[in-house]
Backbone:
């Protein structure tokens, strides 16, 4: 990014990252007011890290893919959230990662075999399998809650893309909802539905970068997921994507989040930042914020 572009972007970033305080609430929010502000919020800048809560969070005894869990994260740090839309038997879009209910709820069987009314009777489990008071939310509930607070990244599960695009339009939510895409063809589908649509694109190799470039997918409408590990091959992707103004995301959810101790995980999160990633996705976004804050303190 040139100095001129950075100077223009700074007021947008400041406007989007806000601490909202009251006697009963303290939230660190991301609040882009328009699709253009969302695009600029996620424009690459060196040495700036944005945290993504994978499935919301699994910290503090809270269940994944729950609105209360995302709210709790914002009490500690600004973050956006990757969540998992799935379709019920009666075509309601709900949030649940697995195709089955067994791991994350007190139900069993396939999500697609239950109506929304039936799913409302279930309770969510935390990461240790303990039942909580929380229940499965709909995607519409999450979108309404997120407005003015955060940005949602909708992962690709079993919901048809045209249904996802229609739901975003229904809520006029292009300023705070992005969609995960795994190919240029999926990206083009969403952009044909709305040129304002923000994308979270899987670009894990130079060849995949070239495929998006050759398909004419605009890089100012995306962040790029480059994989779960720090490795030498990342550097080529950083150079290519950063030149296009694209922020690069490493997800620790399937890798470094599995380390045994808080100290081991903190060292891994700091290594991700040092590697050059500017988005860090984790099951433990509060831990990530603390680990990265300690790095800032140690370098002052």
Residues:
């Amino acid at each position: 990014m040139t100095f001129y572009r950075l100077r223009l972007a700074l007021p947008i970033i400041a406007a989007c990252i806000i601490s909202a305080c009251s006697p009963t609430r303290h939230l660190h929010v991301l609040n882009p007011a328009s699709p253009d502000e969302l695009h600029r919020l996620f424009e690459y800048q060196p040495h700036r890290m944005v945290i993504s809560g994978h499935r919301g969070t699994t910290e503090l005894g809270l269940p994944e893919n729950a609105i209360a869990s995302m709210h709790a994260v914002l009490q500690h740090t600004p973050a956006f959230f990757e969540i998992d839309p799935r379709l019920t038997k009666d075509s309601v879009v709900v949030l649940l990662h697995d195709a089955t209910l067994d791991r994350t709820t007190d139900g069993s069987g396939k999500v697609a075999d239950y109506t929304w009314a039936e799913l409302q009777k279930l309770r969510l489990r935390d990461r240790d399998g303990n039942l909580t008071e929380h229940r499965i939310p709909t995607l519409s509930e999450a979108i309404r809650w997120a407005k003015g607070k955060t940005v949602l990244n909708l992962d690709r599960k079993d919901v048809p893309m045209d249904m996802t695009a229609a739901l975003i339009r229904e809520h006029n939510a292009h300023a705070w909802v992005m969609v995960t895409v795994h190919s240029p063809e999926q990206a083009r589908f969403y952009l044909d539905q709305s040129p304002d649509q923000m994308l979270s694109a899987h670009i894990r190799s130079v060849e995949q970068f070239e495929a998006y470039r050759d398909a004419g997918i605009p890089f100012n409408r995306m962040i790029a997921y480059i994989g779960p590990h720090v490795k030498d091959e990342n550097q080529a992707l950083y150079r290519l994507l950063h030149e296009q103004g694209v922020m690069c995301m490493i997800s620790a959810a399937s890798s470094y989040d599995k380390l045994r101790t808080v100290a081991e995980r903190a060292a891994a999160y700091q290594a991700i930042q040092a590697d050059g990633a500017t988005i860090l996705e984790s099951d433990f976004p509060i831990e990530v914020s603390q680990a990265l804050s300690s790095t800032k303190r140690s370098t002052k």
In short: Residues 3-87+146-167+175-299 form a domain with the TIM Barrel fold (CATH 3.20.20.190). The first helix runs from residue 3 to 16.
